[in-house]
From TrEMBL:
Species name: Ureibacillus xyleni
Active site: residue positions: 186
Family: Belongs to the DegT/DnrJ/EryC1 family.
Entry's Gene Ontology BP terms: polysaccharide biosynthetic process
Protein name: UDP-4-amino-4,6-dideoxy-N-acetyl-beta-L-altrosamine transaminase
Classification lineage: Bacteria, Bacillati, Bacillota, Bacilli, Bacillales
Length: 382
């Protein structure tokens, strides 16, 4: 076994000199928030994914909250999502008073299974929140067909999938609204940050007012002076700062390089593990091009995941597990969700292990991860 000299995280930002300069320039400018960098970042991101609009938020969770507001989710409404995601994908429904319905995943892609979505639709279903888990887009054509048939809104959680492709199209125009997160582990970072992209004018207007207290400046009549504004909805202060947006602009210049490196690393892992029966590598659909936010393996059931996890951590390799099924959390349990709800998701979770993947990883580090892991699992030779 070879121990890495320093702890290596499963995911990490890549900040270079031009990012630092971009932030400093904004710090020296008159406006630290509500200035020109927000619109610049929004326009650049919308152009990159090919959407009409983009609305930046202070984080991805706030952005999802905004999307649920724009979709009109309220008490009594049901929204279907996957259990194999970060809790925020489901929590945003609860913020609006709605009910979360979990649909099981596809055992091959670990993404929500459209057939399972359809089984869970009722007269109260209002929206679907598919998640592009690990960066591989969900089966959006099939999900959109189901949504159309039942008149549902689709909010894609693309926290993992900025720059990923589905049937040759970039994530960002495949759903009614799509969220991207800019937390440091995500494809690009603004420290904290998120965005919703959409082609829909009505959603766009609602998102704008929601992130800024529900205030509208447009509706004042001519008898009022220029100071006048109206608060027409109960919004929040969910704005991103210009400092963050400046970092976002600079990071977005490099997104393709980041993706290229992530794809290279994923290929190295896949090549190394494909002949190892104890390691199940992540299946990719041929019409998706993942952004590889996460590299997930599943360990054969004869291998102790806990043992491998602890041994890898002791070698300074920051393995992780994504994700504990959302409804297993005590908060969801006390709402009445029981274990056993989504058996394929639960089975996946029991065997899953996250390997480090991020643009700053060096080939030598990847080799150490590969060699150690193979050596460890082979002590369980099946
Ligand atoms: C990170 C993440 C979020 C939340 O984004 P934040 O910017 O951290 O609030 C939502 N969904 C998924 C799948 C995520 O990975």
């Amino acid at each position: 076994m070879k121990k890495l000299p320093e702890y290596l995280s499963y995911g990490q930002q890549r900040i270079e000199e031009e990012d630092i300069q971009a932030v400093i320039n904004t710090l020296r400018s008159p406006l630290l928030t509500q200035g020109p960098k927000i619109a610049e970042f929004e326009q650049k991101l919308a152009d990159y994914v090919g959407s009409k609009y983009a609305v930046a938020f202070c984080n991805g969770t706030a952005a999802l909250h905004g999307a649920c507001f724009a979709a009109g989710i309220s008490e009594g409404d049901e929204v279907i999502t996957t259990p194999i995601t970060f809790a925020a994908s489901a929590n945003c429904v609860l913020y609006m008073g709605g009910t979360v319905v979990f649909a099981d995943i596809d055992a091959n892609t670990y993404n929500i299974n459209p057939l399972e979505i359809e089984k869970r639709i009722t007269s109260r279903t209002k929206a679907i929140i598919p998640v592009d888990f690990t960066g591989q887009p969900a089966d959006m054509d099939t999900i959109n067909k189901v949504a159309k048939r039942h008149n549902l809104i689709v909010i894609e959680d693309g926290a993992h999938s900025l720059g990923a492709e589905y049937k040759g199209r970039k994530v960002g125009t495949l759903a009614d609204m799509t969220m991207f997160s800019f937390h440091p582990v995500k494809p690009i970072t603004t420290a904290e940050g998120g965005i919703i992209v959409t082609n829909n004018d009505d959603f766009y207007q609602k998102l704008l007012t929601f992130r800024s207290h529900g205030i509208e400046k447009t509706s004042y009549s001519s008898e009022q002076g220029d100071w006048y504004y109206e608060m027409t909805n109960l919004g929040f202060n969910y704005r991103m700062t210009d400092i963050q947006a400046a970092l976002g602009v600079s990071q977005l210049n490099k997104v393709e390089h980041f993706l290229e490196r992530r794809r290279e690393i994923a290929k190295m892992y896949c090549e190394a593990f494909k002949e190892i029966p104890e390691i199940i590598i992540p299946n990719q659909l041929k019409d998706t091009n993942s952004g590889w936010h996460l590299y997930m393996i599943q360990l054969d059931k004869k291998v102790s995941r806990k043992d491998i996890f602890e041994k890898m951590r002791s070698l300074n390799i920051g393995v992780h597990v994504h994700y504990i099924p959302v409804y297993w959390h005590p908060y969801y349990h006390q709402l009445g969700y029981e274990k056993g709800l989504c058996p394929i998701a639960e089975n996946y979770y029991e065997k899953a292990l996250t390997l480090p993947i991020h643009p700053g990883l060096k080939d030598e580090e990847i080799q150490v991860i590969i060699t150690n892991l193979i050596e460890l699992v082979e002590t369980y030779k099946i």
